[in-house]
Write a structure and sequence with these properties.
mainly alpha; 2 helices
Length: about 80
């Protein structure tokens, strides 16, 4: 009985260790993704600052196309 309990406790410790390692890995990936998203945001902001008319024209074109697509679905 004691041996079965010790085996179960050991399996539980191994499971917890693996879960902690996976959690740490996911946290690292999350941090990397957050940094990448911040970099992309800064790049987009710099583009808009450097090319405001082009950014405005692009936003207008995307909005127009989205509006046309949504209008077609209603019919």
């Amino acid at each position: 009985m004691a041996r079965a309990r010790d085996d179960a406790a050991q399996e539980l410790r191994e499971f917890i260790k693996k879960a902690q390692e996976q959690l740490e890995s996911l946290q690292d990936k999350g941090k990397d993704l957050l940094e990448e998203a911040k970099d992309k945001k800064e790049t987009a902001e710099d583009f808009v600052k450097d090319n405001p008319l082009l950014a405005l024209a692009g936003a207008f074109a995307i909005g127009y196309l989205a509006g046309r697509l949504l209008k077609r679905r209603r019919k």
